[in-house]
Amino acid sequence: MNFYLTYFLVAFGLFAFVGLFTMLGVYAERKVSAFIQNRLGPTETGKFGWLQVPADMLKMVQKEFIIPAAADKILFLLAPVIIFIGVYLGFAALPWSAGVIPADINIGLYYIFAIISIETLGILMAGWGSNNKYSILGAMRSAAQIISYEIPAGFALIAVVMIAQTLSLQEIAMQQGVLAAEKVKFLGIWDVSHVGGILSWNVFRAPHLLVAFVIYFIASLAESNRAPFDIPEAESELVAGFHTEFTGLQFALVFLAEYSMMYLVSMVGVILFLGAWNTPLPNIGPVALADWTTGTAWGIIWILLKALALVGVQIWIRWTLPRVRVDQLMNLCWKILTPLAFACMLISGVWRLWVM
Amino acid sequence: MVNKFLNGLNTAWRGLTLTLKHLFVGNFKRKVVSVTDNNYFKLQEDTNTIQYPKQALPSPEVGRYQLDVEIDDCIVCDLCAKVCPVNCIDIESIKSTEGSIGETSDGSKKMLYAAKFDIDMAKCMYCGLCTIVCPTECIVMTNQYDKTVFELSDLTYQFSDMAPEAVAEKKMLVEKQNAEREAAKEAKKKADEAKRQADEAKKKAEEEKRKADENKGGEEDGEGGVLA
C-alpha cells in the first residue's frame, strides 16, 4: 500500500518540478530574449517582473474554453493531454543522483525514446482535431520533422550506448565519474577512473562522441520544436501551427509540454554525454575535488545545473538563429546529420572492439 | 557540401557570439539627452531602449504634436473647422446681442461666442492646416505628444470656456433679439400693408374724383361747343 503512496508522491513531485521549471523557463526566455535584443523584458509586474509568469497563468486560467464548431471534439480535447503526458511520462526514467531515480528500469533510454514519440501522435491529433488549415499544416510539418530527427538523434545515442554497453540511464550515469565500477579512459588512452570530473564524461571518452553530442543536441532542438526548427509553429506563416485553436488551460498544457520537452531532452543529453549527476571537478593529486563534490545532494545540484545550462543554450540559440526552411530542415537531417550519426555509430563499434 | 556545412557552422557561431555579447553588454541604462546633442548617436551603443514613461526624450519646443486653442483669442470664424481635412474640429457659435464682446490680443473684434470648440484628437492627422488658416493664431500645435487615455471620449478636447448656463443665457438672448426683430419686422410689414391700403384707398378716391371731373369737363366742353 505504501508503494502506491510513494508512487503518487514521486509523480506529484515530478509534476511540481515540471510546472516550476516551465515558469522559470518562460521567465528566462523573456528576459534572455530581451537582453539579447537590448530590451529589458518584463519590469512592471513585481520586482524585475518576476510576477509576470504568475500573472500570465492567472490570465490563462480565466480564459474562455473554446472548442471550434467544426472541430473533432474528442481529438481536440484529448490532444493537449496526450502531448503533455507523453513528455511527462519520460521523466519517470531519468536519474537525478546516485540512487535517486523514480523508476530504475534497465531499458530506460529505450523507454524514454519510445514514450516521447507519443507526443507526435498528440500533435497530429491536435492538428487534425482543430479542423483548421494552419493547424493541420503545422501538425504535418511537426510529424515529419520529429520522425526525421529521431533518426540522427537515435543513432547518436546508440553510439554512446555501444560504448557504455547498457541502456539503463543510471548505469550510464554511474560510468562517467569516480563511482565507475569499470575503467574509464579519457579519449581511450588515459585511465581516469580515479580522477573523475569532466575528464571522465562520455563526450571525452572517445573523440567521435563529441560529434555525436552535437548531432544529438541539434536533433533535440528539432524534436522539441524549438527555433531554429520551429517550423511546426512558424508564427509568420501558420499563426501558431498545431496549437492555433487552443485557448486557456489547453494552451497552457501545450506550453507546459513544450518546456518539459526542452528540459527532458537537455536532461537526456546531460545523462548520456555530459556526465549525468557527476561532478565536473576532477581529483588533482591530494586535492580530491571529485570525491568531495560527489554525493546524493551534490548529484542533484550538478545535474540540475548542467540541464539548466543546456536549456540556456537552447534559449540562446532560439534568439539568435532564424527559422530554417522545410527543405533546409530535411537537407540538414538526411544529408548531414544522419550520415554523420551513422559514421559515429560505426566508429563506436570499431572503438569498442579495438580501443577499449 | 562540406564547405556549405562548415560555412553554416561558422556563420551560426558568429551569430551566437554576437547575441552572447549583447546578452551581457547591451543593457546599460540609456542616458536621456536631446537629439541636438553632439553625442546623441554615440549614446545608443550598448544601451537598452528608453524606458518611456519613466524616461522621455525632450521634444523640441516647436514640436508639431497636439493642438491647443487659446480660446480668449478665438473669434469663432470657423475657418479651422472648414479647412480640416478630417473634420475633427466641431465649433458651435452664438451671435452676440450687444455687438463686440471684446478684443483678441491682436486687436480683432470678437462678435461671436464659442459655445462649443471640440477637437477630436483621435481623428486629427496633424496636418497643421488649421494653424495656418487661423486669422488670430489662436490654434497652435504644441510639443505635447503623449495622449494616452482610458476613455475614447477623453480624446475629444473641449476648449470652450463657457458654462452651460452662460450658453443657454446667450442663446436665449439671441432668440429674444431674433424674436424682437421678427416682431419689429412683422409690425413694419403690417404698417406697410396699412400704408399700402391707405394709399390704395387714396388712389381710388382720386380716380373717382378724376372720373367725376372728366364727366363734369365734358359737360363744360359741350357747353363750350355750343358756345363756339
Describe the structure.
The complex is a heterodimer of chains A (356) and B (228). Chain A has 356 residues and is mainly α. Helix content of chain A is 64%, strand content 2%. Chain A has 13 helices and 4 strands. Chain A has a two-stranded antiparallel sheet with strand order 1-2. The longest helix of chain A has 35 residues, at 2-36. Chain A starts with a helix and ends with a helix. The mean pLDDT of chain A is 85. Chain B is of the alpha+beta class and 228 residues long. Chain B has 3 domains: 2-44; 67-162, Alpha-Beta Plaits, CATH 3.30.70.3270; 164-228. Chain B has helices at residues 2-25, 79-83, 129-133, 164-227; strands at residues 67-69, 89-95, 112-120, 139-141, 156-158. The longest helix of chain B is centred in the C-terminal third of the chain and has 64 residues, at 164-227. Mean pLDDT of chain B is 84; it is low at 224-228.
What topology does this entry show?
The complex is a heterodimer of chains A (356) and B (228).
Chain A: H1 2-36, H2 52-62, H3 73-90, H4 108-116, H5 118-130, H6 133-164, H7 169-174, E1 185-186, E2 190-191, H8 207-223, H9 235-238, H10 248-273, E3 283-284, E4 287-288, H11 289-292, H12 296-318, H13 326-355
Antiparallel strand pairs in A: 1-2, 3-4
Helix pairs in contact in A: 1-10, 1-12, 2-10, 3-4, 3-5, 3-10, 5-6, 6-8, 6-13, 8-10, 8-13, 10-12
Chain B: H1 2-25, E1 67-69, H2 79-83, E2 89-95, E3 112-120, H3 129-133, E4 139-141, E5 156-158, H4 164-227
Antiparallel strand pairs in B: 1-4, 2-3, 3-5
Biased composition (Basic and acidic residues) (chain B): 178-219
Protein name (chain B): 4Fe-4S ferredoxin
Pfam family, one (chain B): Fer4_7
Characteristics:
heterodimer, A: 356 residues, mainly alpha, 2 domains, two-stranded antiparallel ribbon, globular, B: 228 residues, alpha+beta, Alpha-Beta Plaits, three-stranded antiparallel β-sheet, two-stranded antiparallel sheet, 4 helices, 43% helix, 11% strand, disordered C terminus, 4Fe-4S ferredoxin (chain B), repeat (chain B), metal ion binding (chain B), NADH_quinone_OxRdtase_chainI (chain B)
